[in-house]
Specification:
Largest interface: A-B, 15 and 19 residues
Largest sheet of chain B: 2 strands, antiparallel
Oligomer: heterodimer
Order of helices and strands of chain A: HHHHHH
Order of helices and strands of chain B: EHHHHE
Shape of chain B: elongated
Structural class of chain B: mainly alpha
Shape of chain A: globular
Number of helices of chain B: 4
Distance between the termini of chain A: 22 Å
Structural class of chain A: mainly alpha
Radius of gyration of chain A: 19 Å
Number of strands of chain A: 0
Strand order of the largest sheet of chain B: 1-2
Strand content of chain A: under 5%
Radius of gyration of chain B: 15 Å
Chain lengths: ~180, ~80
């Protein structure tokens, strides 16, 4: 009979896949930027760097898939927050004329991510659902209070970007989930 | 709520993971129930009782016994 404590805690393996996904995503995008920006004067072994960057991005996606496959849905929340931070609409830059297309693509990806996460939650057990429900409620409260505070001091605070609100909501949902989980685990 | 889940599981030499697989829940849920940190829903409680082939009262017991009904007092 397998000892009850023999299996690695889910939170540890979730943290590992999260770090792998973030690190590979950062590395892959950095390599892709490095090589594409210098396409007229590519660095030595430029194409290998491109392939390496693409491979790292695939590994990042694989790590995210492993999180979902293992049912460690809680780590998908900070991962989504990280992705939102990395994808800034203002970075459209020279493709300003394609702003609407970029926006629609971003909205489509966001809706797809929400649907996938909702489907994952539907497959989770009752305790996991309760943890996410309380976590989401905590995130909502943080968002409400933050919105009111921002409105009160709007003149003195920097301009608020849309994805920052989403990032704060996701991260506070995750914090609420972790705080609630401590009561039950 | 108190429960005898750990005892029943040990009698059958099941690990928490084994029990979780049979109940289609996560191992953390089984652990939380055994440590009396989480009270399962009614369907899950019935599923547990059915799995061990015992009555639900033989698995779960309230923390505080309700006072006995006094049927003799006249109103």
């Amino acid at each position: 009979m397998e000892p009850d404590g023999a299996r690695k805690p889910r939170s540890d393996s979730g943290a590992l896949w999260f770090v792998v996904s973030v690190a590979c995503s950062l590395g892959g995008v950095w390599l892709a930027n490095l090589t594409f920006r210098r396409y007229q004067n590519p660095p030595p072994g430029g194409w290998y760097l491109v392939l390496l960057g693409v491979a790292l991005i695939f590994v990042a996606g694989y790590a995210a898939w492993r999180l979902a496959r293992a049912g460690i849905y809680s780590w998908l929340l900070p991962l989504a927050a990280f992705c939102l931070l990395r994808v800034e609409p203002g970075r459209a830059g020279d493709v300003r004329t394609w702003r609407l297309e970029w926006g629609v693509m971003g909205l489509a990806w966001t809706l797809a991510a929400v649907l996938v996460f909702a489907r994952l939650l539907r497959r989770s057990d009752e305790l996991e659902k309760r943890l996410h429900l309380e976590g989401a409620f905590f995130g909502l409260c943080v968002g409400l209070v933050g919105s009111v505070v921002y409105a009160l001091f709007e003149n003195r605070l920097p301009e608020l970007r849309g994805q920052w609100v989403a990032v704060v909501l996701l991260l506070s949902w995750w914090v609420g989930y972790l705080a609630t989980a401590r009561r039950y685990w | 709520m108190k429960n005898r889940l750990r005892v029943l599981r040990a009698e059958r030499e099941w690990s928490q993971a084994d029990l979780a697989d049979r109940l289609s829940v996560s191992r953390q849920t089984v652990n939380s129930i055994e440590n009396e940190r989480y009270d399962p829903s009614l369907p899950l409680a019935f599923a547990i009782a059915k799995l061990f082939q015992v009555r639900i009262e033989d698995v779960f017991a309230p923390d505080v016994e309700p006072p006995p009904l006094d049927l003799t007092s006249s109103t």
